[in-house]
Design goal:
The chain has about 140 residues and is of the alpha/beta class. The protein has 5 helices and 5 strands.
Amino acid sequence: MLGTFRPRKKTKQAKILIVDDEIDLVKAVQWMLKSYDYDTVSAPNGIEGLRIAASEKPDLIVLDIRMPLMNGYEMLKHLRGDPALKNIPVIMCTASNEVQDIATASSYNICDYITKPFDCTQLIGRISNALKKWRS
């Protein structure tokens, strides 16, 4: 009986960096992502987000626009200017649905844009699609 047991093969799970100053939202998104077997790390602003991105090399970043110290646009500018980080896919997750914000974010080659409040399954679907697209 014991000889027939085969442990499930461990596969590398995607690591998601969540950069947002809304702590309750970050905790909720982390809980949701962990339930789908994603690894998560978080940062409350763009400065910390860049530091964590450089050290952790996440597979994808979920990024807010409006944050203290360094906003999402500034973080995107630094990400895209860094050869080691420029190819990390980014999903903007923000309360703004203004055309100008969407256009500005898109100019930094983001892979998706989702507005708050959002449906958790919608975010999971977009993360999954972005990872498939950017990994291929």
